[in-house]
F-box domain-containing protein (Bombyx mori), 439 residues
Amino acid sequence: MCELLQSVKEQITEIENEITANKYQLDEPNLIDMPVEIFLQICSFLDAYFLKNTLSKVCLRFCDILADDQLWKHWVQNKIKGKFPPVGDLKKWNVDPADWQDLYIAMEVEKKTWCNVEETMKHMVVKDVHFASVDAVLLVNNGELCISGGRDRGMALWNVSDISAKSETNDGVTSLTDTKPKHLRHDAHAGWVWDLAADVVNSASKVYSASWDNTVKAWDLATGFQCIQTFQCGMAALSVVTVGSETLAGLYSKNILSFDLRSGSGPIYVYTPHKGPVLGLDEYDNLIASISEDKTLAVWDRRAGKILMQDIKIPTGKAYPVCLSWGPAALYIGDSKGALHLFNPETLKFVHSVLAWPQNQPNNTYCKVTACHQSESNLILCSDKGEIKFMYNCYPPQEFTTVTSTTSEVTQLQYLNGVLVIGTCDSALEFWVPKDKFP
């Protein structure tokens, strides 16, 4: 009898153990059922482009989680550790909210590209075409064409894919001494070529050049880089910009002239917003911003045909303004002593200044901010000491890397569709082209 009871007890114990084991057995962990907090923590270590274009398409749950705009906004704010956009309370951002997903991806792509420039870019130096300082460069047609002009009074049209095909590399830099441009005009002007502009950047058919010889010339890209019109300015043209069918030139004589190919070689109107030479022009939303040696900013309204604002003081101190960049997030002005001045792009009120290049204490010298390029998410500055800074477009601008050119002085910078080109005082052009752009 005791043996029978013992046998039954053992069987009951085995059943209880089996039930207990099955009750508390955990399922194998998987990404699909993972808590959102853990999933997002994993995502924070992954590439943003991969999150948007691959992981979000795995299932509806991932798609719903990664479609949250507030999530991407949170990631942007964590990345920059500052104020973004750099100017608050912008009407544009209230009417047309930012795409935080695209902003974050753009930030990550730029950082990954320029922090690993030797792996991602072909760096090429083109020499022995211009024989004086290259003061003007322009990229058009998605970065496939480049136009250059300089103090040798010449202009050249370059096919970027032809330059990229060269492969004599030394320490990551390809030095090209026998590369010929697609077209070359040794006698493009009778004076220094100071600035360039295109009719439509990504589908350019005409390019305009401003020169010290008192003219602005129009060049046809479709007919072998031929000059199709010479606009008479009566004074050295220091800057040029295009808006629609209009071409505006800033002169050494304080005036700004507007030309139209359909109206001949004379200006269609003239306005005088400054008391000194007009050093730079930029266009945004049918408005023309100009900076002058008199240390002021002015804005012309094309639709109203009048000066909208003028005598806006630029707090440069003893420096003078050199370049400007006007976009939906900010209006930046770089000066001759390394400072970057931020203005509200809508009200044009001064916001603050930051020192992009501190004073060189041993020599007591300054760096000049020679060019500025901005997108909604990123900012690129170059100096006359050969440095190119890459920053997030926030307040204060947050630098994530610096690229050093082979030259002692950068004169101009253009960035389009991943292609970067600079003009130099060493009579050369330098290109950075994505390695996967022209295989």
The two ends are 89 Å apart (CA to CA). The chain has one domain: 113-434.
